[in-house]
Amino acid sequence: MLYDVILGSLLSRRVDPLVPVLQETASDNMTTFAAKNAVYSAVYTTALVFRGQYLALIGCQNHATFLDHVCPGGAEFRRPYTRHTAAMRAANRLRARLVPTRSGAYISSWGPLNDPRGRSSSAIDTMANLPLLYWATRQSGDASFLYAGEAHARKTAEAFIRPDGSTYHAVEYNPISGERIRGYTFQGYADESLWPRGQGWAIYGYAATARATGNQAYLEQATRLAEHYLKRLGESCVPPWDFDDPAVPHTLRDSAAAAIVSSAMLEISALHPNLQDQKLWRERALAMLDGLCKDYLARSSAHRGLLMHGCYSRPHNEGVDSATMFGDFYFVEALCKLTMPGRFRHQTAALN
Asked: Given 3.40.50.720, 1.50.10.10, 3.90.420.10, 3.40.50.700, which CATH number is that of 2-339?
């Protein structure tokens, strides 16, 4: 009933009826005027997520290679069984992209698997798709989804993460031996640069893998990657589109990366067995979200999303200063973790 009230009020653009609801659900942490406005805007997107309109984004991102023809639209897609069926079909498609090698397995990110170029390539973005596989295991009882996701996480740690804790955007593997042939980029400044959103995908994926497996090693990997991200970030709340763009700080920003990392840091906080570290990671996430709410939240009805100044792909000059659907999604997810804990999914428990 609560979500019906929220959805109906926001679809009709009537905000006043939502005030009691928001006062009831608002967290003491969300005290700034900007943050409260963010909740107003975010609840609309949250309601759509809950209705299944953004299902293609949950754990999927841009990888249409396994989502083609699995997500029906319109009224049919609003039925719960249809959403479940579509998500399971997507999970099956994703699992089917696992490429076994002599030294582990990875999920191919692009193109048909019978194309050598597609079969040999994987992107760091795929780490954010792993929650779809973990969800499928919980729903179906089929542990092969979990094993596929964990295998990809292990192989990614071996091939994508540099000694300093930064990540490649993409890797070309030898599909027989599993050895990395090269690390490269599509959306970053250079092959050896650090693309912040890719680092965010990795942090998010390892936190999700820690949650799914209960293995603290994945939590440690997530925290290591997050520490490196924060070191490169400095005093800002939103990173440049690439940390190694020579024009930094006078260059484009990517609010989507900050939204992803803020949600991931809340997950790290919830998973961490140490109370002091729980508090530290939560405070870091709150500071990042506060900055997004104050300086990046869209207030004009002409803006097509919630967050301003996302950067989809600077090298391709596509969406270089705009809203992004995934940025808005993870922004809303982070706000929901703070304002409505346990309302949209079970709360994460600390690892032992």
From this structure: 1.50.10.10
Is the bond preceding residue 249 a cis peptide, omega within 30 degrees? yes
- CA separation for the pair 174, 316 (Å, rounded): 27
Q: Where are the domains of the chain?
A: 2-339
pLDDT in tens, 181-215: 999 999 999 999 999 999 999 999 999 999 999 99
Gap between the Cα atoms of 189 and 194, Å rounded: 8
Say how far apart CA 61 and CA 71 lie, in whole Å: 13
What's the rounded Cα separation, in Å, for the pair 162 and 158? 9
Distance, in Å, from the CA atom of 96 to the CA atom of 120, rounded to the nearest integer, reads 14
Would you say the pTM of this structure is higher than 0.85? Answer: no
Burial class (CB in 10 A: 0-12, 13-18, 19+), 23: exposed
